[in-house]
C-alpha cells in the first residue's frame, strides 16, 4: 500500500512527493516556509482482492446524459451524523451505498471541513452556524464519537476512504463547500461533468447542465440524483436565483437572518417575484437605488438595507478561490477492487469499538 500525504501552504503550490519504492508504505510531507493555510491530501493505491457487485438503481436516479465523464465530490462531514447525533455507522452506511450504487468506478474526491473553516463568515455574521458550533464543542467535550475518540474517528475515515482509492482533501481555514466549489470549477474546465454527493442545500447554487447533486434519502436508505430540471420544477426559477433569493429570505439552518426580520411584510413571494424579474440580488439592488422596482415597503427595504443583503450574499455565496489545485491523478477511473475488504474492516472495527466501550476497555484502531 502506498500512502501519499502532502501539505500545501497559502501562496505556494507544491507538487506531491512520491516514494521511490512503490511497494513500501510511507508518509511524505511537502511544505513551504510560508505557514498559513494547510491542505492535507491522503490517497492509497494498493489493490487487494476483486470486488464485484450488481448495479442497484438509486431512487429517483436520473443521471446526466453520457456525453462527458463524471467526477464525484463526496462531502464527508454531514454524512457522519445520524440526525443530530455523530455516527461513524452513518458514514459507513452512506459510503457503502455511494460506492456500490452511485459512483462505481467514476473518480471520487472526498472533502472534509478544515480547521476554523467558518471563521471568516462568522466575523461577518456571528450567528452563522452558531448552533452547529455549540454542538461541535459538546461533542469534543465528550471526547467520544461513535464509541471512539474524536481525533481517532478522523483517522478511521481517512483510512477507509484511502483504501477505497478516494483522495481526501482538507484545507485549513476553509469549509468543505468552498473547496468543492473551487475544485468543481477546475474539473469543469477540463471537460468533465461534476456530481456533488451531499445533503447540503448550499450546493444548489452550483447546479447547471454539467453540475448535479446526489443526495442521501435517510427515509429510503438511498441516494437520489437532483438535477437542473428538478431544481426548476421545485422552485420555478433557475439555480442562479437560489443564492440571491436566500440572501433576501434568509437561511434559518445556517443562522442567516432574512430581511423579514427588519421588514416583516417582505416575504418569500415578493422576493421571488423581484429576483425572477431582475435575475440577481446585485442587479435588483442597483435598480432599486435609481428607480422604483416594487411596492413602497419593498422599495424602501432594498434601499435602506442594501448593505445587510450584500453581507448575507457574502456569507452564503460559495467561494471559488480557495488555494487548492486539482491533480490529474484524481480524474482517472477509480479502482474499486478493494472496496469490500476496506468496508468490511471498517464495520468490524465499529462493532469491536462498541464492545470495548461496553466493557470499559480502550478503543484501539490499527488501520
From TrEMBL:
Superkingdom, taxonomy of origin? Eukaryota
The record's SUPFAM superfamilies line, in alphabetical order, gives: 5' to 3' exonuclease, C-terminal subdomain (SSF47807), PIN domain-like (SSF88723)
Q: Name one GO molecular function term.
A: 5'-3' exonuclease activity
Instruction: Tell me which residues make up the 5'-3' exonuclease domain.
Output: 69-334
State which residue ranges cross the membrane.
Answer: none
Does the entry feature the keyword Hydrolase, yes or no? yes
| Keywords of the record | Hydrolase, Nuclease
Give a yes or no for keyword Repressor in this entry.
no
* Any one GO BP annotation for this protein: DNA replication, Okazaki fragment processing
- State what protein this is by name: 5'-3' exonuclease domain-containing protein
Annotated organism of origin: Canavalia gladiata
Amino acid at each position: 500500500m502506498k500512502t501519499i500525504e502532502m501539505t500545501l501552504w497559502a501562496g505556494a503550490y507544491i507538487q506531491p512527493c512520491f516514494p521511490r519504492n512503490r511497494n513500501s508504505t510511507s508518509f511524505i510531507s511537502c511544505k513551504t516556509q510560508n505557514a498559513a493555510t494547510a491542505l492535507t491530501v491522503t490517497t492509497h493505491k494498493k489493490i487487494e482482492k476483486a470486488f464485484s457487485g450488481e448495479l442497484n438503481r438509486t431512487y429517483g436516479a436520473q443521471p446526466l446524459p453520457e456525453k462527458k465523464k463524471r467526477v464525484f465530490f463526496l462531502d464527508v462531514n454531514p454524512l457522519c451524523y445520524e440526525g443530530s447525533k455523530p455516527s461513524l455507522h452513518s458514514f459507513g452506511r452512506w459510503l457503502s451505498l455511494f460506492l456500490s450504487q452511485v459512483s462505481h468506478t467514476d473518480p471520487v474526491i472526498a472533502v472534509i471541513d478544515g480547521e476554523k473553516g467558518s471563521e471568516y463568515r462568522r466575523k461577518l455574521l456571528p450567528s452563522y452556524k452558531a448552533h452547529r458550533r455549540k454542538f461541535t464543542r459538546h461533542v469534543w467535550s465528550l471526547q467520544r464519537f461513535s464509541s471512539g475518540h474524536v481525533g481517532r474517528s478522523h483517522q478511521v475515515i481517512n483510512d477507509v476512504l484511502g483504501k477505497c482509492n478516494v483522495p481526501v482533501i482538507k484545507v485549513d481555514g476553509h469549509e468543505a463547500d468552498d473547496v468543492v466549489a473551487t475544485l468543481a470549477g477546475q474539473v469543469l474546465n477540463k471537460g468533465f461533468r461534476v456530481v456533488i454527493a451531499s445533503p447540503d442545500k448550499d450546493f444548489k447554487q452550483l447546479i447547471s447542465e454539467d453540475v448535479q447533486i446526489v443526495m442521501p434519502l435517510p427515509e429510503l436508505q438511498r441516494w437520489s440524483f437532483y438535477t437542473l430540471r428538478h431544481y426548476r420544477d421545485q422552485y420555478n426559477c433557475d439555480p442562479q436565483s437560489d443564492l440571491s433569493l436566500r440572501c433576501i429570505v434568509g437561511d434559518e439552518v445556517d443562522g442567516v437572518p432574512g430581511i423579514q426580520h427588519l421588514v416583516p411584510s417582505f416575504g418569500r413571494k415578493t422576493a421571488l417575484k423581484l429576483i425572477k424579474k431582475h435575475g440577481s440580488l446585485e442587479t435588483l439592488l442597483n435598480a432599486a437605488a435609481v428607480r422604483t422596482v416594487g411596492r413602497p415597503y419593498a422599495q424602501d427595504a432594498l434601499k435602506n438595507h442594501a448593505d445587510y443583503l450584500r453581507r448575507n450574499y457574502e456569507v452564503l455565496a460559495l467561494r471559488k478561490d480557495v488555494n487548492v489545485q486539482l491533480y490529474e491523478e484524481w480524474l482517472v477511473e477509480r479502482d474499486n477492487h478493494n472496496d469490500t475488504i476496506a468496508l468490511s474492516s471498517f464495520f468490524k472495527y465499529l462493532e469491536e469499538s462498541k464492545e470495548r466501550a461496553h466493557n470499559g476497555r480502550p478503543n484501539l484502531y490499527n488501520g
